[in-house]
Amino acid sequence: MPVRAPRFSRPSGDRRRVAAVLRWPIGIAVVSWQYLWRTTAIRRVEEEGDDSDLPDPVPPDRLDDRIQQVQDGYGPLLHRRYRVRIVDGCPAEELMARLAADPNRWAPSGMSVFRRTRGESGSMSVGDELVVRLPGPWDGPVRVIASGPRGFRLATLRGHLEAGQIEFRVRPDGAAVDFEIESWARPGDRLSHLLYNRLLLAKEVQLVMWTQSCLGVAALSGGRRDGPLSVHTRRLTDPE
């Protein structure tokens, strides 16, 4: 009888990375379209960072070997803050409740999908887990590590193509509400490092994703944007 050669399956993590690479042209097409039709004013600041740009440590009681921390990544760290000022909308805490109930209501359609894998829908509680599907190489699982009436913070999990944290928060300012997204992230593996830091469009895919989210939040509030969006980026070359 002929002897069959053994079949070796590629680890699931590798399959995810290959799939991300194959989806990369789709991400480029989406971003190109967004840029072509974008009329929103954006105030951008970019500068060199320092150790103050590192995120707070994950609380010990919420840390395990599945969490992918900044020090587990590769290459430079980007500390970014996206901000939109909203007027004539709902109160800050009501807005945050709406955001936490279903991220797909404010995330840009066609660019991202949030899928809950752990925890009850309708809120963001510590320990909840989600998978974020994006057109570029950033798909991956996240866990809620902090949550309150005015914000929640996510940490990336093993298998995510980034390593770090991201926080969504609201702050009342008189009759207005400021909504901010603050992220601390670096590529989660060597392939992501190559795509992220060599093909610089990756940085712009991320910018379009979260600025469009800011506009979605303003719409969800029932109010309107007041002034330009702001994006502040600090780059820390050696986060180690």
Task: Please give the radius of gyration in angstroms.
Answer: 19 Å
**Total of helices:** 4
Shape: globular
Helix content: 25-40%
Distance N to C terminus: 57 Å
Average per-residue pLDDT, rounded, comes to 83
Structural class determined from secondary elements: alpha+beta
Question: How would you summarize what this structure contains?
Answer:
The chain is an alpha+beta fold and 240 residues long. The chain has 4 helices and 10 strands.
Describe the protein in words:
The structure is a single chain. The chain has 240 residues and is an alpha+beta fold. Helix content is 27%, strand content 32%. The protein has four helices and ten strands, in the order H-E-E-H-E-E-E-E-E-E-H-H-E-E. Strands 1, 2, 3, 4, 5, 6, 7, 8, 9 and 10 form a ten-stranded mixed β-sheet that branches. Helix 1 (12-37) packs across helix 4. It is globular. The chain starts with 11 loop residues before the first helix and ends with a strand. Residues 1-11 have low confidence and may be disordered.
Q: Key features?
A:
alpha+beta, ten-stranded mixed β-sheet, 10 strands, disordered N terminus
Describe the protein's topology:
Layout: H1 12-37, E1 42-48, E2 77-87, H2 92-101, E3 113-118, E4 129-133, E5 140-148, E6 151-156, E7 162-173, E8 176-187, H3 190-198, H4 201-220, E9 224-225, E10 229-236
Parallel strand pairs: 1-10
Antiparallel strand pairs: 2-8, 2-9, 2-10, 3-4, 4-5, 5-6, 6-7, 7-8
